[in-house]
Hints:
alpha/beta, Immunoglobulin-like, TIM Barrel, eleven-stranded mixed beta sheet, eight-stranded parallel beta barrel, 17 helices
Amino acid sequence: xxxxxxxxxxxVVNKRLLKKSAAFLCACCICTAAAVLPFSDAVSVSAVFxxxxxxxxxxxxxxxxSAGHKxxxxxxxxxxxxxxxxxxxxxxxxxxxxxxxSYNWETNFSNSAEGENSSNDNALVKSYPADRQRxxxxxxxxxxxxxxxxxxxxRYVTLQMMGTVAADSAGVVYPSDGAARxxxxxxxxxxxxxxxxxxxxxxVYMDEYVSxxxxxxxxxxxxxxxxxxxxNEPENWSELYPAAAARKITSDELVERSAELxxxxxxxxxxxxxxxxxxxxxxxxxxxKNPDDWDKHxxxxxxxxxxxxxxxxxxxxxxGTRLLDSLDIHYHTEATNGLLEPVINGTxxxxxxxxxxxxRILWDSTYTENSAIAIxxxxxxxxxxxxxxxxxxxxxGTKLSFSEYNFGxxxxxxxGIAVADALGIFGEYGVHMACLKPNSEDTSYQKSGIxxxxxxxxNGGSFGNTSVRSDNGGDIMSSVYAxxxxxxxxxxxxxxxxxxxxxxxTADVTIKSDASFESAEVYSFGKDGPDIVLSDxxxxxxxxxxxxDMEPLTVYxxxxxxxEEIISADDPEETTTVSEISRPQDTESTxxxxxxxxxTETTVSEPEHVSAETFSTAGTSASEEKESxxxxxxxxxxxxxxxxxxxxxxxxxxxxQTDGSSADESDPSGEREGKSVPKAVKAAVVVLxxxxxxxxxxxxxxxxxxxxxxxx
Length: 712
């Protein structure tokens, strides 16, 4: 029957269709192999290709404590406020509920943000007694209370910018209800503020909200609210709140609203950080999920991020002060499995393997994420170097933050590894702030991914505040990050990750340093459980070298002890002095900052291995104070990741320094030195791609010859 099918001339169309389908399937198989290749451990690679060239039983790791210095912001160890904080040590907490776009701070009403027939209610404050649920800004009071309870020094509030907020708590909102169920949001009151807001005037004022919080908790530099977000994912307003936002917001509208609200904030508290646009996903970064509107800007700007930065810079110049302190984005991995299902929710082996590699989209130009949107817009990948390039071009001096990030796997070791890997990347690239936003109730492994940096020993032991150069030879089945505390310390911390599922990997480690290290304690968590444990075996170091066997799917923190200063006090490296206080006037061109008796300054060395083209000069503005009511010993031991030369002011607060200086230009690619993918991998990808092209070309030629033959 099959033979008759292929010999029948009348079946030529079907025959051609089958050949095309076969070719397409062949190409898909090859592409899938190329995509899966980086995610597979050595066993899988050997099974497919008869070789394990992507991975090795051992790696050479080199730590150079005198090079690659860059300050690590303690605020990258953050969490979104909806997550359970039990057993977690973080330095930043942020409001992030989708309801916040409709939050009425005067009455605490909000909308459920579920599209058609959504509900107005008091869900954001339902845990409070009924007689308190109408207290102004009660939801923010909950944020501050959590921060105090868990010793979290930095608190961030989301402001409303959509234009309307919930007017009542009367339940389902129908399209026919119209404006009666909403109150108008006004950014500036242009009148005196009331100690208690007027809930009868039909308006909700944002500057009055900021003033209310400043009066209640203090200004940012005095330990109050540290920063404000310009709403939450505005690209989704029309989908979540169709009754309040009938159409998608345009690029012009978002820039205009952002500038107006930011100026209102700065007029009340010029020392507070302003974050925006807080959009989520690559599509939003490209065109704000509004391609029809974006067409008018696409010829001049490569993506919406550029347009936003340029617009905020122009608005800042007009206002006479910096209006945007940090470019803020949300990134939840968009990678998919073979069935095009998001791996962020997956628990299968493919999803877990993909998750182990997913953080590479943040920095690695050789990494191809298995998602249509990332492949389609590959010119904007990797994210951090591209975002930093946009900052340097359109609004130099702006910080970078990922106030929501997630790779999934909260209750699986792959999720813990992904968080630990991402935090290492954030620290090495000078990201200012980052907050994990889990998507599952079980966050045990993701918490360990944070705690390994902030409280690995249960007594406040933390990663250093200054990143140093580390190199693992480009091995993609492992990661390495290293840090010291300041310039006159003998304490070196090295974080190592083995991403293999079932094989031990030996790390041959060499430390380049004038100091002599003798031993190291080993803390770790792995696939046997999320608890961080101290090994009963110390590492013995000889001539600053040693070999270390890493168990499969395990994260290690190596804590070294030395006998001399790592870098002498008269080290000749150029240093940069940076202040973490937001400046009323924009002076980033000179590197100057406003000064006061309460400002603590830290001297840090200029980063060396990220190019000036891609390293953001962010870090020259804004205050990130500790809550004055939190005891200093608690913060120093369990909440703060050992900020450089931290001191406390008279109110119990303190300032943390981060560097904004550009690096040398020895690495124009912007990639981490020594951590790019090996040439063998690149060659394999090129060969596989060429094979796909050749197969498709062959089928097309054969198809055309067959068509001509049939015509004759």
